[in-house]
Design a protein that fits this description.
Layout (H helix, E strand, L loop, with lengths): L3 H6 L6 H8 L6 E3 L5 E3 L1 H6 L7 E7 L9 H14 L4 E5 L4 H5 L7 E2 L2 E4 L1 H5 L5 H21 L6 E6 L3 E3 L9 E3 L10 E3 L1 E3 L4 H8 L3 H9 L2 E5 L4 E3 L6 H7 L7 E5 L4 E4 L14 H10 L2 E5 L4 H16 L5 E6 L1 H7 L12 H19 L5 E6 L6 H14 L2 E5 L1 H4 L5 H11 L15 H13 L3 E4 L1 H13 L8 E4 L19 E10 L4 E6 L18 E2 L5 E2 L3
Parallel strand pairs: 3-16, 3-17, 4-15, 4-16, 8-11, 17-18, 18-19, 20-22, 21-23
Antiparallel strand pairs: 1-2, 2-14, 5-6, 6-14, 7-12, 9-10, 12-13, 14-15, 22-23, 24-25
Helix pairs in contact: 4-17, 7-8, 7-10, 9-10, 13-14, 14-15
Length: 557
């Protein structure tokens, strides 16, 4: 059996100019990065401003398990299948982070015969967007510390600097650090913190900005610190927004690539859904909606995280409304949720699947609250029995969701035709998209709304530090009270406890920390033990990745 990278290397890629030409992108609207990847600049969007938007399809999944669900694979395969049915389709995905690529999860370009290519480029440095985000973020940090060194005219309290440094690799040793040690010329000693780049506010800003001017304004609105008199300091007070935006002037342009079957794909931005808002850029999604008749996008991790944030944050800001939602599941993952160990998932166990099926039920019910038709896509494995598949179909029928099998991993677009037909039909059904909560609710009320209506919690416990932070945010500016909330929570459970599988009941969500992302336009809420800087596993993926003297990479998924 071929590995993902071996399959990708056999792809008959077309020059990116040919893919762009098929979409109606003019040569002057395309900025090439080699033969097979390019950025599309604002000239195209400006020219297509009056063109009707495509129907938007969101792909999400149940809570992830070690058994795998295949959300990105399904997204890619669905796009290829819809093209086979004669529908002009464009896929919009997030860019992979180097953190999971070299850590535990691996790449994020799909799998099997449902991949976006060039897979190696996409999973590594791609077009340099993440490096630009890292540089812009850390430039602001350098400006803060330089201001302290050069006399601190703004009277910034070093103990209350909120904005920290980032890197796009998992490095737990950088979570809490002390900087400025050494001689007087080495800077002011203080505590600092690192996050992974995909969790940074700069990443969120890039993904939510409408254009370069909006990007610059949002960067200026980043709350970086408090003064000794407790008044706020923003990035614009340090004149940082112009230089930061300069570093991001190319990164804000969406990237065009293709699938193994030459279906166009836009890949841009990549915030994690468990610790950030989990969606590709607004610009990428809107571009995809101008390029085709159907635009398929995905949201990170489980529907309780990625889909909720796509719907309540991204759609709220961008004025988007999906026509259908695809919820990805596998028989193996449902059995794992039902208590079956990973080593025994190949054995038929309808009763365990029935127990774990409550996780699927919860996600279907949650998504239906948004008023959009739901289609459940089951990624099929050879070990799935007909009795198990019949049980999943029965769960979907009880919950009022359509059901389709998907075999895109093994068969590419041909393996997704049934799913594509169901999704196209769902897009024609009545849809009444609505947000989960209103802007006018308080920050605590929004948190409680998500915890109760999406996670199924009986309530929310706010630590003293979190309650104090919320009070400070609401007192800082009246407009901050209307911000949506971005929940940081374990992806493995509907609760904030990763060990509680299935559909937990009678639990509380514990909010331990609350941060204002004034530039992004939302409030970040940290729950349970979730961390914004992951660590490497005992045997990281980096152990098996290598390159030979001719530049051939091995071990990359």
């Amino acid at each position: 059996m071929l590995t993902d990278i071996e399959i990708a290397r056999q792809a008959q890629m077309k020059p990116i100019t040919e893919i762009a030409d098929k979409l109606g992108v003019l040569p002057e609207e395309l900025e090439q990065y080699g033969h097979y990847k390019a950025k599309i600049n604002d000239a195209f969007l400006n020219r297509m401003a009056d063109r009707p938007d495509a129907k938007l399809i969101l792909v999400t999944a149940i809570n992830p398990t070690p058994a795998g669900e295949g959300k990105t694979t399904t997204t890619v395969g669905l796009g290829m299948a819809m093209e086979k049915l004669g529908h002009k389709t464009v896929i919009a995905l997030r860019e992979p982070s180097l953190g999971p690529v070299f850590g535990v999860k691996g790449g994020a370009a799909g799998g099997g015969y449902a991949q976006v290519v060039p897979m190696e480029d996409i999973n590594l440095h791609f077009t340099g967007d993440f490096h630009a985000i890292t540089a812009a973020n850390n430039l602001l940090c350098a400006l803060i510390d330089n201001h302290l060194q050069q006399g601190n005219a703004l009277q910034i309290d070093p103990r209350r600097i909120l904005f920290g440094r980032v890197t796009d690799t998992n490095d737990r040793a950088l979570r809490n650090v002390v900087i400025g040690l050494g001689k007087k010329v080495d800077g002011v000693p203080r505590e600092d913190h690192f996050m992974i780049t995909v969790a940074s506010e700069v990443m969120a800003i890039l993904c939510l900005a409408a254009d370069l001017e909006d990007l610059k304004n949002r960067l200026g609105n980043i709350l970086v610190a408090y003064k000794y008199d407790n008044s706020p300091v923003y990035a614009r007070d340090l004149n940082a927004q112009g230089s930061m935006a300069t570093l991001l002037k190319d990164a804000i342009k969406p990237n065009l690539v293709q699938t193994l079957e030459n279906t166009p794909a836009i890949i841009h931005g990549g915030p994690f859904a468990n610790i950030a808002h989990g969606c590709n850029s607004v610009r990428a999604t809107k571009l995809a909606m101008k390029l085709g008749d159907y635009a398929i996008t995905e949201a990170g991790f489980g529907a309780d995280l990625g889909a909720e944030k796509f719907l309540d944050i991204k759609c709220r800001f961008a004025g988007l409304a999906p026509s259908a939602i695809v919820l990805v599941a596998t028989v193996r993952a449902l059995k794992y949720n039902g208590g079956v160990p990973k080593t025994e998932l190949k054995t038929e166990d309808v009763e365990a699947l029935r127990r774990g099926g409550v996780n699927l039920e919860a996600h279907i019910e949650n998504l239906k609250q948004y008023g959009v038709p739901v289609v459940v896509a089951v990624n099929r494995f050879d070990t799935d029995s007909q009795a198990e598949l019949d049980e999943v179909a029965a769960i979907c029928e009880r919950c009022g969701a359509d059901f389709a099998l998907s075999d895109v991993f093994a068969r590419g677009g041909d393996g997704g035709l049934e799913l594509a037909e169901k999704v196209v039909a769902a897009c024609e059904k009545p849809s009444d998209f609505k947000l989960l909560y209103d802007d006018e609710l308080s920050i605590k009320e929004k948190i409680e709304c998500i915890a109760k209506n999406i996670y199924g919690a009986k309530g929310v416990k706010f630590d003293a530090a979190a309650s104090k932070a919320i009070a400070e945010i609401e007192a800082l500016d009246e407009s901050y009270k209307k911000f949506p909330v971005c929940m940081a929570k374990t992806q493995y459970s509907l609760s904030d406890d990763a060990t509680k599988l299935g559909r937990p009941t009678v639990f509380e969500i514990t909010v331990r920390e609350v941060r204002l992302s004034a530039g992004a336009g939302f409030v970040v809420v940290l729950t349970g033990a979730v961390m914004t800087m992951p660590g490497l596993p005992k045997v990281p993926a980096a152990d098996r990745i290598d390159v030979d003297g001719e530049g051939n990479i091995t071990g990359l998924f």
